[in-house]
Amino acid sequence: MNKTAIVTGIFGQDGAYLAKLLLEKGYKVYGFIARRSTPVDWRLKELGIENEVEYIEGDLTDVSSLIRAVNIAKPDEFYNLGAQSFVGTSWKQPILTAQSTGLGVLNCLEAIRLSNSDIKFYQASTSEMFGLIQEPIQSEKTPFHPRSPYGVAKLFGHWMTINYRESFNIFGCCGILFNHESPLRGIEFVTRKVTDAVARIKLGCQKDLHLGNIDAKRDWGFAGDYVEAMWKMLQQDKPDDYVVATGRTTTVRDMCKIAFDYVGLNYEDYVVIDPKFYRPAEVDLLLGNPKKAKEVLNWEAKTSLEDLIKMMVEADLRRVNKELKVKD
Ligand code: NAP
Ligand code: F7E
Fold this sequence. Notes:
binds ligand F7E, binds NADP nicotinamide-adenine-dinucleotide phosphate
């Protein structure tokens, strides 16, 4: 019999790719969506799956809406991808971030515990929990030291998932995912900010690109690859936590170079350092060790940073070209 899944954050980057993957595998997919006054389903539309998902309204901060959603969907699997996920915003709205990104996880776990504790649960944990890194290469065993309200909130959700596994035998898995990007990435994140700017500069409708700390290093992969790891975690016999990463780290500066080079421009002619984009506390370096994911899940990143950036620049060139045609 086909399985049923509920996905929070389905209108976000990962939610869209995960929904597509689950639909391809024959799942019935329910999207748990927060009410917004304007449509936010553009990612599902880009993937052509907006009519294949059933939607249930609710909010991660409202446990009653989660219990209602679980009772309607009766899922086999519950993927919690919803969160206030932008690190920069988490200093400006720390309490909202704690409520949705942190307490929201506990609300999901409670909804499962009270409705049907056999539901398998995936929690979107993050490399941001490593923050001020305690080891040069981070694995499942590396101690955490979060550096942002977002990282702190995620750590609460991470430990709550482990606690519900140990206390109530809930099949809860945490994917400690390192940065992953795609043409569906939000424009506020640095890779997409860069690829969008590259397209606009190339097509003559933007002059420069203002960035903050371009010496920060990230382990960047492709979101389309990473959602496979989420699904694989819930197909194992036993629940566990996994680092999902490429094992390669690159500075924001070198990522810019790759993106500008692709359209034949020199990033140094366009990038302006703007302290407005510095963070109160920075995560200088992230580099994941995906050995366990490879050994247990048979998962590994397939897309190189160069191919990822190329895919993103091409998508942004198409979008900006379309925008310019509409204006003509
Ligand atoms: P994203 O694009 O920001 O998507 C997050 C989604 O959550 C959005 O659709 C958002 O809706 C929804 N949401 C926010 N607050 C909510 C609430 N209170 N109730 C219900 N829904 C809510 O994030 P993503 O990049 O797809 O990431 C997916 C998850 O993985 C997130 O939990 C993120 O923190 C985590 N993560 C991401 C990365 C990465 O590199 N992408 C790495 C590690 C972990 P609105 O936009 O309408 O508010
Ligand atoms: O920043 C630097 C910035 O916002 C990356 C989220 O998905 O991954 C993401 O969090 C780096 C940081 O991602 C700008 O200071 C420089 O060092 O793209 P980002 P993030 O903060 O790493 C983790 C794993 C998550 O879990 C999060 O949900 O780039 N940087 N200049 C800049 N960053 C931005 N956004 N904008 C700049 O102008």
